[in-house]
Design a protein that fits this description.
There is one protein chain. Helices cover 54% and strands 10% of the residues. By secondary structure, it is of the alpha/beta class. It has 2 domains: 5-14 and 229-386, no CATH class; 24-213, P-loop containing nucleotide triphosphate hydrolases (Rossmann fold, 3-Layer(aba) Sandwich). The protein is elongated. The protein starts with a helix and ends in a 5-residue tail after the last helix. The mean pLDDT is 88. The protein binds guanosine-5'-diphosphate and magnesium ion.
């Protein structure tokens, strides 16, 4: 392997990031409503860590990281009973109007993709259970946002501060006055409180709402930015990401290529593998992981192809045809790449489960190796592609 390859993997990873469109999410609510806690719970602490934000206008801070798939706009909020209350609504409204004007008149910096980069795609409006009430101000701001045709969800936060009756009263108030969907949450990390609230918490429903209200083109960014949610990530990988690369692989073999040229598929497989790894958030966990994953693909791809051939696995794929003896055709190229994608996704899923959900320290090379990839690829050829 050349010395400069690890840098190439980093570069590929940056290219992947650059190709992912990011939704802009506006986080509203009073000071202390729990906005930062919601963001940390859903996306992980790294995104909203103090000091990372850039003020975009008075009272609104933008949180964006190159390798994270969402852009968050955190509003400073308002303290109940101060003159900031009236300023808050005016501020947010003015800023949304300015964004829309900028979108309507493409300028130098937004000409590439004005619609996507210069508007708010959805609003999460936090109302704290700690305050035990929905204020006129909340209702007012929510109605203003709805009038602008923005998708708005109320995040009813800190429900651990409410008894059943108080919760019911707040829900009635939100239903009657806000007329938007709402989701009950608590960011408490007390296991006993969490267990007691289990039937009430709606984090998953909030995330489902958030995905449903984003344009298809923005969903990958959102899902990849989520903390955990490994099943949603796996689904995205299987249905959206791997197919991009199997098509690319098929394209390379439109005119069947000799087996000796199968290395032409390797760059596609490397990019696919890094894309999968990134979607599970593993790139943020370990910088060197990209070179490990990349170099395993580089060194194993040829051997995996030979093994797949000698085990007659391609025969299980319709459309492989008679050319199998000497050349890689589109069916071979795409099924081989799909099988590898499945294998890498399974391995990354297991790593992510161990690292993020079980808090384990793992030896990456125990997971990422030719033997594990081969085993899972065989599984794909035999059963996986049917499920
Ligand atoms: N009991 C409880 N406290 C919370 C919860 N979420 C946030 N808090 C606390 O409420 C305060 C304000 O939260 P923060 O997320 O900073 O609110 P922000 O000002 O809207 O960003 C902090 O002291 C948090 O620790 C929750 O779900 N339950
Ligand atoms: Mg905050």
């Amino acid at each position: 392997m050349k010395d400069d390859q690890p840098d190439d993997f980093e570069k590929t990873l940056s290219e992947i990031s650059a190709g992912i469109k990011k939704p802009n999410i506006l986080i509203c609510g009073a000071t202390g409503a729990g906005k930062s806690s919601v963001v940390n719970y859903v996306f992980g602490v790294a995104l909203a860590r103090i000091g990372h934000g850039i003020p975009v206008t008075q009272g609104i801070t933008k949180y964006q990281q190159e390798n994270t798939g969402v852009v968050l706009f955190d509003t400073e909020g308002y303290e109940v009973g101060t003159e900031k209350i009236s300023k808050y609504k005016a501020n947010v409204e003015r800023w949304i109007n300015e964004l829309r004007d900028a979108t309507a008149k493409p300028s130098k910096e937004n000409q590439t993709d004005p619609i996507l980069s210069h508007q708010i795609h959805e609003v999460w409006y936090c109302i704290s259970g700690g305050n035990k009430r929905v204020t006129d101000m909340d209702v007012d701001v929510i109605q203003m946002l709805r009038a602008k045709k923005l998708p708005v969800a109320v995040v009813l936060t800190q429900i651990d501060n409410l008894d059943a009756e108080e919760l019911e009263a707040m829900e009635v108030a939100i239903r009657n006055h806000c007329q938007v969907e709402f989701f009950r949450t608590s960011a408490t990390d007390d296991p006993a409180v969490k267990a007691a609230l289990q039937d009430y918490l709606q984090w998953e429903e909030l995330i489902g709402w958030a995905i449903d209200h984003l344009d298809e083109s923005l969903r990958e960014g959102f899902i990849s930015a989520l903390k955990g949610n490994l099943d949603a990530k796996k689904k995205l990988i299987n249905h959206k990401i791997i197919p991009l690369y199997t098509s690319a692989a098929a394209g390379v073999a439109l005119t069947p290529i000799p087996f000796s040229d199968a290395a032409l598929l390797v760059p596609i497989q490397i990019k696919m593998s890094l894309h999968i790894m990134k979607t599970y958030g593993l790139d943020q966990k370990l910088r060197n992981l990209s070179s490990l994953v990349g170099s395993v693909v580089v060194s194993e791809s040829g051997r995996l192809l030979a093994q797949t051939l000698s085990a007659n696995l391609f025969k299980l794929i319709p459309g492989v045809g008679t050319a199998i003896g000497t050349t890689v055709n589109t069916a071979v190229a795409s099924s081989f790449t799909a099988a590898m994608g499945y294998a890498i996704s399974e391995i990354c899923f297991r790593c992510a489960t161990a690292v993020f959900e079980e808090g384990k320290e793992i030896e990456w090379a125990d997971y990422f190796n030719g033997e594990n990839i081969a085993k899972l690829m065989t599984e794909w050829f035999k059963v996986g592609r049917h499920g």
